[in-house]
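Database export, one record per block. Field names are fixed; values are copied verbatim from the stored entry.
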Amino acid sequence: MPFGYIGQNQTKQKVKNSGVLSSFEISHLEKQGHAGGSLQHISTTTFSSSSAVNITEGFKGYDVFFAQVIGLSGSGNMNFGMQFYESGVLETTGVYEYAQQYIQSDSGNGVEHSTSASRLVMNSIQSTDSTGLYIYFYNFPDSSKYSFYTFQTTTSYVADFEMKFGGGILKQKSVVDGVSFTPNTGTISGTIKLFGVKEI
């Protein structure tokens, strides 16, 4: 099919257009994996009553990764967080930094932050919850840069609805090749889909 182009006065142009891709053309290119921002599925991990979910395959070939956490639930009241693998070794010391904001439907709101965290906490879970979140990871394969992430999540917190967003960083220049998702207590169940974000 013909696509738009950037340029003018092309003498051999057979299709007349403004040089701007339509939404249909962008959708078609993304489905074929040719447009920047296309998500390339890497893996799907489904887990039940797990104390840790380790994804240590697939974090290569992209500068940006996207994780979709679906149907997340826990065995009790807890929080959901993660740690990074550096060249196959799980980093568990206080070298993480994060900042995040939460807003609750009962007008409660605030910020949470740390400059010396040993684990990156993203949201709270209750045993009656089934929640979800998405996470973007940056610079994982690049040993000359810090690896960092951004996230957004929604959940019910006590009797209220809560929305939380934020991000953090592993302030060490290293190759990050895996993530360990964990609750601070008990077990978790759900599904995590990992994608690479294709660049132009």
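Remark 1: Residues 23-31 form the longest helix (9 residues).
Remark 2: Residues 1-35 form one domain.
End of record.
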